[in-house]
Amino acid sequence: MGRHRGGHRFGGFAGFMGGRGLGGGGFHSGGKLASADLQLIILALLAEKPSHGYELIKSLEERSSGFYTPSPGMIYPALSYLEEIGYTRVEAEGARKLYSITDEGRRHLEENRPAVEAMLSELERIGSRMEYVRRAFADREFAADETDRFDEPAAPEELWVARGRLRRALHEKRHCSLSESQRIAAILRRATAEILRK
Question: Which residues, including other chains, have CB under 8 Å from residue 59's CB and lie 6 or more apart?
Protein backbone atom coordinates (compact mmCIF):
# COMPACT_ATOMS: atom_id res chain seq x y z
CA MET A 1 0.00 0.00 0.00
CA GLY A 2 2.94 2.35 0.46
CA ARG A 3 3.22 5.39 2.70
CA HIS A 4 1.01 8.42 2.24
CA ARG A 5 3.21 11.35 3.20
CA GLY A 6 1.33 13.98 1.26
CA GLY A 7 -2.28 14.81 0.58
CA HIS A 8 -4.35 13.65 -2.35
CA ARG A 9 -6.31 15.55 -4.91
CA PHE A 10 -9.89 14.78 -5.85
CA GLY A 11 -9.53 14.69 -9.63
CA GLY A 12 -11.28 17.01 -12.05
CA PHE A 13 -13.57 18.33 -9.33
CA ALA A 14 -10.67 20.31 -7.83
CA GLY A 15 -11.12 22.91 -10.55
CA PHE A 16 -14.86 23.08 -10.00
CA MET A 17 -14.33 23.38 -6.24
CA GLY A 18 -12.08 26.42 -6.60
CA GLY A 19 -8.85 24.56 -7.29
CA ARG A 20 -8.43 23.39 -3.69
CA GLY A 21 -7.09 19.89 -4.23
CA LEU A 22 -4.99 17.82 -1.87
CA GLY A 23 -2.03 17.26 -4.20
CA GLY A 24 -0.95 13.72 -5.27
CA GLY A 25 -3.32 10.97 -6.38
CA GLY A 26 -6.97 10.99 -5.37
CA PHE A 27 -9.73 10.60 -7.95
CA HIS A 28 -8.86 9.50 -11.44
CA SER A 29 -10.96 10.33 -14.48
CA GLY A 30 -14.45 8.94 -14.13
CA GLY A 31 -14.60 9.66 -10.40
CA LYS A 32 -12.55 6.64 -9.30
CA LEU A 33 -10.43 6.90 -6.18
CA ALA A 34 -6.82 5.68 -6.37
CA SER A 35 -6.62 2.12 -5.00
CA ALA A 36 -4.16 2.91 -2.18
CA ASP A 37 -6.32 5.83 -1.07
CA LEU A 38 -9.48 3.71 -1.14
CA GLN A 39 -7.72 1.07 0.99
CA LEU A 40 -6.83 3.70 3.58
CA ILE A 41 -10.37 5.05 3.67
CA ILE A 42 -11.73 1.51 4.09
CA LEU A 43 -9.41 1.01 7.06
CA ALA A 44 -10.67 4.27 8.58
CA LEU A 45 -14.28 3.13 8.21
CA LEU A 46 -13.53 -0.30 9.65
CA ALA A 47 -11.77 1.35 12.60
CA GLU A 48 -15.13 2.94 13.42
CA LYS A 49 -17.01 -0.37 13.24
CA PRO A 50 -16.83 -3.79 11.52
CA SER A 51 -18.80 -3.72 8.29
CA HIS A 52 -19.93 -5.71 5.27
CA GLY A 53 -18.76 -4.59 1.85
CA TYR A 54 -22.19 -3.22 0.99
CA GLU A 55 -22.21 -1.17 4.19
CA LEU A 56 -18.87 0.38 3.26
CA ILE A 57 -20.25 1.38 -0.13
CA LYS A 58 -23.30 3.00 1.47
CA SER A 59 -21.17 4.76 4.07
CA LEU A 60 -19.01 6.40 1.41
CA GLU A 61 -22.09 7.35 -0.59
CA GLU A 62 -23.68 8.98 2.47
CA ARG A 63 -20.51 10.81 3.57
CA SER A 64 -20.12 12.31 0.11
CA SER A 65 -23.84 13.11 -0.36
CA GLY A 66 -23.91 10.78 -3.34
CA PHE A 67 -20.78 12.22 -5.02
CA TYR A 68 -18.70 9.07 -4.58
CA THR A 69 -20.22 5.58 -4.65
CA PRO A 70 -17.54 2.94 -5.27
CA SER A 71 -18.67 -0.14 -7.16
CA PRO A 72 -18.48 -3.66 -5.68
CA GLY A 73 -15.75 -4.27 -8.27
CA MET A 74 -13.62 -1.70 -6.44
CA ILE A 75 -14.56 -2.39 -2.81
CA TYR A 76 -14.25 -6.17 -2.72
CA PRO A 77 -10.80 -6.47 -4.38
CA ALA A 78 -9.56 -3.79 -1.96
CA LEU A 79 -10.99 -5.75 0.98
CA SER A 80 -9.40 -8.97 -0.27
CA TYR A 81 -6.03 -7.24 -0.57
CA LEU A 82 -6.29 -5.77 2.93
CA GLU A 83 -7.07 -9.25 4.27
CA GLU A 84 -4.11 -10.78 2.41
CA ILE A 85 -1.62 -8.34 3.93
CA GLY A 86 -3.06 -8.73 7.42
CA TYR A 87 -4.74 -5.35 7.82
CA THR A 88 -8.26 -6.81 8.10
CA ARG A 89 -9.88 -10.02 9.25
CA VAL A 90 -13.07 -11.63 8.00
CA GLU A 91 -15.90 -13.47 9.75
CA ALA A 92 -18.49 -15.40 7.78
CA GLU A 93 -22.10 -14.43 8.49
CA GLY A 94 -24.10 -16.79 6.34
CA ALA A 95 -23.48 -15.82 2.74
CA ARG A 96 -21.96 -12.48 3.76
CA LYS A 97 -18.56 -11.52 5.14
CA LEU A 98 -18.04 -9.14 8.05
CA TYR A 99 -14.75 -7.25 7.84
CA SER A 100 -12.91 -5.74 10.81
CA ILE A 101 -9.55 -4.02 11.19
CA THR A 102 -6.58 -5.81 12.82
CA ASP A 103 -3.98 -4.30 15.17
CA GLU A 104 -1.54 -4.18 12.25
CA GLY A 105 -4.17 -2.39 10.18
CA ARG A 106 -4.69 0.16 12.97
CA ARG A 107 -0.95 0.85 13.15
CA HIS A 108 -0.83 1.44 9.41
CA LEU A 109 -3.88 3.68 9.62
CA GLU A 110 -2.36 5.77 12.41
CA GLU A 111 0.86 6.18 10.43
CA ASN A 112 -1.23 7.66 7.64
CA ARG A 113 -3.88 9.38 9.78
CA PRO A 114 -3.27 12.95 8.47
CA ALA A 115 -3.68 11.80 4.86
CA VAL A 116 -6.83 9.78 5.45
CA GLU A 117 -8.43 12.53 7.55
CA ALA A 118 -7.69 15.01 4.77
CA MET A 119 -9.23 12.71 2.16
CA LEU A 120 -12.39 12.12 4.19
CA SER A 121 -12.71 15.82 4.94
CA GLU A 122 -12.32 16.70 1.27
CA LEU A 123 -14.80 14.02 0.24
CA GLU A 124 -17.40 15.39 2.66
CA ARG A 125 -16.67 18.97 1.59
CA ILE A 126 -17.13 18.16 -2.08
CA GLY A 127 -20.30 16.22 -1.29
CA SER A 128 -21.66 19.17 0.68
CA ARG A 129 -20.88 21.54 -2.17
CA MET A 130 -22.46 19.23 -4.73
CA GLU A 131 -25.59 18.99 -2.56
CA TYR A 132 -25.71 22.78 -2.42
CA VAL A 133 -25.47 22.96 -6.23
CA ARG A 134 -28.23 20.35 -6.62
CA ARG A 135 -30.49 22.32 -4.30
CA ALA A 136 -29.73 25.56 -6.11
CA PHE A 137 -30.74 24.02 -9.45
CA ALA A 138 -33.85 22.55 -7.84
CA ASP A 139 -34.78 26.02 -6.56
CA ARG A 140 -34.34 27.46 -10.06
CA GLU A 141 -36.54 24.78 -11.58
CA PHE A 142 -39.18 25.37 -8.93
CA ALA A 143 -39.03 29.14 -9.45
CA ALA A 144 -39.48 28.66 -13.21
CA ASP A 145 -42.56 26.49 -12.72
CA GLU A 146 -46.03 27.98 -13.16
CA THR A 147 -46.95 27.01 -9.61
CA ASP A 148 -44.32 29.45 -8.31
CA ARG A 149 -45.61 32.46 -10.25
CA PHE A 150 -48.01 34.96 -8.73
CA ASP A 151 -50.88 36.29 -10.84
CA GLU A 152 -51.08 39.92 -11.82
CA PRO A 153 -50.98 42.45 -10.36
CA ALA A 154 -47.31 41.80 -9.58
CA ALA A 155 -46.68 40.44 -6.10
CA PRO A 156 -45.41 43.06 -3.65
CA GLU A 157 -41.67 43.26 -3.08
CA GLU A 158 -41.99 42.26 0.58
CA LEU A 159 -43.34 38.87 -0.48
CA TRP A 160 -40.21 38.12 -2.54
CA VAL A 161 -37.97 39.43 0.25
CA ALA A 162 -39.71 37.20 2.81
CA ARG A 163 -39.44 34.21 0.48
CA GLY A 164 -35.71 34.80 0.03
CA ARG A 165 -35.17 35.09 3.77
CA LEU A 166 -36.99 31.82 4.33
CA ARG A 167 -34.76 30.03 1.82
CA ARG A 168 -31.62 31.42 3.45
CA ALA A 169 -32.82 30.45 6.90
CA LEU A 170 -33.55 26.88 5.80
CA HIS A 171 -30.14 26.67 4.11
CA GLU A 172 -28.37 27.80 7.29
CA LYS A 173 -30.23 25.13 9.28
CA ARG A 174 -29.52 22.28 6.85
CA HIS A 175 -27.13 20.51 9.26
CA CYS A 176 -29.17 21.03 12.44
CA SER A 177 -30.08 18.35 14.98
CA LEU A 178 -33.10 16.07 14.74
CA SER A 179 -34.99 17.99 17.43
CA GLU A 180 -34.29 21.30 15.69
CA SER A 181 -35.42 19.81 12.35
CA GLN A 182 -38.68 18.73 13.97
CA ARG A 183 -39.18 22.22 15.43
CA ILE A 184 -38.62 23.83 12.02
CA ALA A 185 -40.97 21.36 10.33
CA ALA A 186 -43.71 22.24 12.82
CA ILE A 187 -43.22 25.95 12.10
CA LEU A 188 -43.45 25.35 8.35
CA ARG A 189 -46.63 23.28 8.75
CA ARG A 190 -48.26 26.08 10.73
CA ALA A 191 -47.11 28.69 8.21
CA THR A 192 -48.44 26.61 5.30
CA ALA A 193 -51.82 26.28 7.00
CA GLU A 194 -51.96 30.05 7.55
CA ILE A 195 -51.05 30.78 3.90
CA LEU A 196 -53.74 28.45 2.56
CA ARG A 197 -56.40 29.70 4.94
CA LYS A 198 -59.12 31.70 3.18
Answer: 45, 51
Residue 18 pLDDT more than 50? no
- Helix 53-63, helix 72-84: angle, nearest 10: 120
Q: How far apart are alpha carbons 69 and 58 in whole angstroms?
A: 7
- Give the whole-angstrom CA distance, residue 9 versus residue 16: 12
Show the domains of the chain with their CATH numbers: 13-124 (1.10.10.10), 152-198 (no CATH)
Alpha helices in 91-152 (DSSP H): 103-111, 113-144
3 state DSSP class of 138: helix
Element housing 44 (H / E): helix 35-48
The whole-model pTM stands at 0.54
Asked whether residue 29 carries a pLDDT value surpassing 50, the answer given is: no
Of 112, 166, 125, whose CA–CA distance to 142 is shortest?
A: 166
